[in-house]
Design goal:
alpha/beta, about 180 residues, single chain, 3-stranded antiparallel beta sheet, globular
């Protein structure tokens, strides 16, 4: 018999049991504790962040305007971009951008792998919520892995403005993640 003592809501993961008791034999109970502080580790994001830039077709002009407006801040960091987004940002802003494949051709998955390998610190993904995307599973996987590895994500210009205006963007930052 399992009796729940408490539940904690974890964003994007749903509910987890913080503690629960169960009967083993003859009325004895044992308390198990999931996600102790010992189960979490720090991952250091350097002061010079590695920032991924992604924009769907209908959002590329918004990303370009935003990148031009934040040129000074972006120039202090390492930039990566998927396909056309990376090329356009580099050409129209003069910023150095490492280009990966186009999103539908594996670029989203390349970014996800780099996030899991602790090689990306911030994801700026201007996605189009009103347009169906043929690579939607890849998009969801990229956003999911960003949450799993606890990296800041901005999905529109307003959230990107807030994120990039944070003083933490230019400081060493310790991200807490489960010890997978």
């Amino acid at each position: 018999m399992i009796s729940v003592v408490s539940r904690t809501f974890v964003p994007y993961l749903g509910y987890r049991l913080a503690d629960f008791d169960y009967e083993v034999h003859k009325g004895r109970t044992t308390t198990l504790d999931f996600m102790n502080k010992e189960d979490l580790i720090n991952i250091e994001s350097p002061a010079k962040k590695r920032i991924a830039l992604v924009a769907h077709d209908n959002m590329k002009s918004e990303m370009l305007e935003w990148a031009k407006a934040h040129h000074d801040v972006l120039s202090q960091h390492v930039l990566l971009g998927t396909g056309t987004t990376g090329r356009l940002v580099a050409e129209q802003t003069g910023l150095e951008v490492e280009r990966l494949r186009s999103g539908p051709l594996g670029g989203d998955q390349q970014l996800g792998a780099r996030i899991a390998d602790r090689e990306i610190d911030i994801l700026l993904f201007f996605w189009d919520p009103l347009e169906p995307q043929p690579h939607d599973p890849d998009i969801k996987a990229l956003l999911r892995i960003a949450v799993v590895w606890n990296i800041p994500v901005a999905c529109n210009r307003a959230s990107a403005d807030f994120l990039m205006s944070s003083p933490l963007v230019n400081e060493i930052y310790q991200r807490r993640v489960p010890n997978y």
